[in-house]
Amino acid sequence: xxxxxxxxxxxxxxxxxxxxxxxxxxxxxxxxxxxxxxxxxxxxxxxxxxxxxxxxxxxxxxxxxxxxxxxxxxxxxxxxxxxxxxxxxxxxxxxxxxxxxxxxxxxxxxxxxxxxxxxxxxxxxxxxxxxxxxxxxxxxxxxxxxxxxxxxxxxxxxxxxxxxxxxxxxxxxxxxxxxxxxxxxx
Length: 186
Description:
The chain has 6 helices and 6 strands. By secondary structure, it is an alpha+beta fold.
C-alpha cells in the first residue's frame, strides 16, 4: 500500500527538498566515479550543504536571504495530502520544474483555489474542469462528486488536486506527465 503524506506545507517541502538534493548527490557521486575527479570539493559551499542534507538559513550581513525561501506561512494555511508515489517523482525533475513544484505547494497552501499561482491567469496552465471531464476524473481517480478538481501545468507535468474545506486540506491526487493524463482521461 502506498504511504500518504499528510501535514504542513513546510514538512512537505522539506521532504521534496531532501529527495531532490539526495538524487543530485547520487548523480554527482556517479559522475565522480566515472571521470575520476572529486567534483564535490569544487562546488560552492551552499550547494555542498544542500547535497549533504543540511539546509542552513544563509543570510548576508544585512539579513537578506542569499537564496530563495518559501513563503508558506501566509494565507489560509491549508494542509497538504499527497500520495508518496506522486511526491517521489520530484527527485527526477530538473531544477526549474522542481522549483515550480515547491512554489505550487506554497501557493496552494495559502490559497487552495490556485489564484495565487504564477500562471493562474492563463487557462492553458491552470483551470478547473467542465462537467464531462469532471465526471471522467471522478470515475478515474475516485474523487468525491461534490468536489471541484483543479489542474496546473508545470513544464510537461500536470498537478491535480481538490479542496477539502471541512478538513482544511488539499488532496493532490495526481502528478504525472501530460501524455499519461491524456491516456487516462480519454
